[in-house]
C-alpha cells in the first residue's frame, strides 16, 4: 500500500541530513536516530554488564531483527543468517556448494559485482571450470531467453546482480528464476542495491540464495548484512567451517544446525545487528512500495536535470530504473568531480571498472560518477546538485 511520507520529520530524525547533501545512499546511506540509539545503547549495556551478559539479554531483539529481515523479503526466519557484509554472505554460500569440477560452467549476468566474480574466478581456475556471461537485451538487462538456451548438464550455478552498482538498470530477477527453477540449477542473487529500495519476494523470484547489505538503502550500520537461503536448498549446503553455534559437538561428528544459522558464528556484533533491526523496522513501517515510488520520482527528476546540462552524459540502461544515476562530465574525471562536489558538502560516488568489470568493459566505460537518491532526498537537493554540476561542467568545457 502506498502511503504519504513525512519527509520533513524523517529528515529531522536523521542527523546527517543537516550536515551534507547526501547522494551516496547506494554506497552507504544515513542512519536514523533510532538506528544510532539501538547501537549505542547496546554498547552502553556492554560497558556496564559485560559483552556476553549484554548479548544474552539481547537474544530476543536479535530474533526480532531476524524475523523482520525475513518479513521484508517474504522468507521464514529460519532461512535468514546474519553476516558481516554482503560479500562475506555471498562467499559463505558459494563455498558451501558442491565442489566445482573441470568442465563445469557458471553463468553470470553482465552486471555481476566484481567481488562475486573474483570468488567465482578463483574457484573456476582451481577446478578448470568456465565462467560465461549471459547475453543482454536491447535495454542492457540480462536476457532470460538467452540464458535458457545456454543451459545444459554442466551448468552448476547462475548468478545475478539484480541492480548493478554502476547505474540505474533493474534486471528481471523473476524471469531468470523461472529458467533456473525449471532446470533445477542453483540461483544466487546479489540484492545489495535492492533491499530497502525495491519490494522483494524470494518465492516469486525463485532464487535459492539472496544477500544484501544493511548499510545501503536500508539505512542500517556498516558491518551487518543479510543472507537468505531457501530451506530446501540450505539443507544441501555444507558450510566451509563450523563453530559452537553453527554445530554441536558429537563423538560421531558435528551435528550441524538445520537452519540458516549454520552459517553464523557465536562471535557476532550484537550492537550492529540491533542497529540493523531498527533499520528493518523502519523500512517495513514506511513500506517498501512507498519508498520505491518516491525514489522513482526523485531519480527521474535527477536524470532529466543532469541530461539537460551541456557536457553531461547520463549512462543508465534499463527500461525500469532504480535510484542509482550514473553520469560523466566532459573534461573532468569522475573522481575529480566527486572531490569538487565534496567541497560543497555534496556527496556522490565515483565507480571504476572493478565494481562491475564485465559491464563497464562491454560498454567501453572506465569510470562513472554515481548519484543515488533515497526517500530522504528533496527536490531542493536535486537542484543544488545539478546546479553545482552545471557550474563544474562549464568550467571544464
Automatic annotation (TrEMBL):
Pfam families documented for this protein: Aminotran_5
Organism in which the protein naturally occurs: Phyllobacterium myrsinacearum
Family: Belongs to the class-V pyridoxal-phosphate-dependent aminotransferase family.
Entry protein name: Aminotransferase
Keyword Lyase attributed: no
GO molecular function: transaminase activity
Occurrences of domain Aminotransferase class V (ranges): 26-385
InterPro entries: Aminotrans_V_dom, Aminotrans_V_PyrdxlP_BS, PyrdxlP-dep_Trfase, PyrdxlP-dep_Trfase_major, PyrdxlP-dep_Trfase_small
Keywords: Aminotransferase, Pyridoxal phosphate, Transferase
Source superkingdom: Bacteria
RNA-binding recorded as keyword: no
Cofactor(s) required for function per UniProt: pyridoxal 5'-phosphate
Amino acid at each position: 500500500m502506498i502511503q504519504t511520507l513525512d519527509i520533513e520529520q524523517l529528515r529531522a530524525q536523521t542527523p546527517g541530513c543537516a550536515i551534507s547533501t547526501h547522494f551516496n545512499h547506494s554506497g552507504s546511506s544515513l542512519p536514523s536516530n533510532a538506528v544510532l540509539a539501538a547501537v549505542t545503547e547496546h554498547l552502553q549495556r556492554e560497558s556496564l554488564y559485560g559483552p556476553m551478559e549484554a548479548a544474552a539479554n539481547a537474544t530476543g531483539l536479535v530474533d526480532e531483527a531476524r524475523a523482520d529481515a525475513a518479513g521484508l523479503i517474504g522468507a521464514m526466519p529460519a532461512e535468514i543468517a546474519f553476516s558481516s557484509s554482503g560479500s562475506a554472505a555471498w562467499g559463505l554460500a558459494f563455498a558451501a556448494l558442491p565442489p566445482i569440477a573441470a568442465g563445469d560452467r557458471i553463468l553470470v549476468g553482465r552486471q555481476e559485482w566484481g567481488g562475486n566474480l573474483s570468488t567465482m574466478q578463483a574457484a573456476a581456475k582451481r577446478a578448470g571450470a568456465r565462467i560465461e556471461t549471459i547475453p543482454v537485451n536491447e535495454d542492457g538487462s540480462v536476457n532470460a531467453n538467452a540464458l535458457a538456451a545456454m543451459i545444459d548438464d554442466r551448468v552448476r550455478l547462475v548468478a545475478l546482480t539484480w541492480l548493478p552498482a554502476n547505474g540505474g538498470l533493474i534486471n528481471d530477477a523473476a524471469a531468470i528464476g523461472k529458467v533456473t527453477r525449471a532446470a533445477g540449477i542453483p540461483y544466487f542473487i546479489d540484492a545489495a542495491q535492492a533491499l530497502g529500495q525495491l519490494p522483494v519476494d524470494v518465492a516469486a523470484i525463485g532464487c535459492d540464495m539472496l544477500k544484501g547489505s544493511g548499510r545501503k538503502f536500508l539505512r542500517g550500520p556498516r558491518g551487518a548484512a543479510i543472507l537468505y537461503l531457501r530451506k530446501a536448498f540450505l539443507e544441501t549446503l555444507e558450510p566451509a567451517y563450523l563453530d559452537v553455534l553453527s554445530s554441536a559437538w558429537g563423538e560421531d561428528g558435528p551435528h550441524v544446525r538445520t537452519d540458516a544459522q549454520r552459517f553464523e558464528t557465536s562471535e557476532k556484533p550484537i550492537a550492529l545487528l540491533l542497529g540493523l533491526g531498527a533499520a528493518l523496522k523502519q523500512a517495513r513501517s514506511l513500506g517498501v512500495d512507498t519508498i520505491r515510488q518516491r525514489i522513482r520520482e526523485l531519480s527521474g527528476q535527477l536524470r532529466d536535470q543532469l541530461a539537460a546540462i551541456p557536457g553531461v552524459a547520463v549512462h543508465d540502461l534499463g527500461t525500469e530504473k532504480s535510484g542509482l544515476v550514473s553520469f560523466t562530465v566532459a573534461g573532468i574525471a569522475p573522481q575529480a568531480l566527486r572531490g569538487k562536489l565534496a567541497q560543497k558538502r555534496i556527496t556522490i560516488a565515483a565507480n571504476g571498472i572493478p565494481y562491475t568489470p564485465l559491464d563497464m568493459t562491454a560498454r567501453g566505460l572506465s569510470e562513472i560518477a554515481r548519484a543515488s537518491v533515497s526517500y530522504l532526498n528533496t527536490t531542493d537537493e536535486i537542484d543544488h546538485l545539478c546546479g553545482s554540476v552545471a557550474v563544474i561542467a562549464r568550467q571544464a568545457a
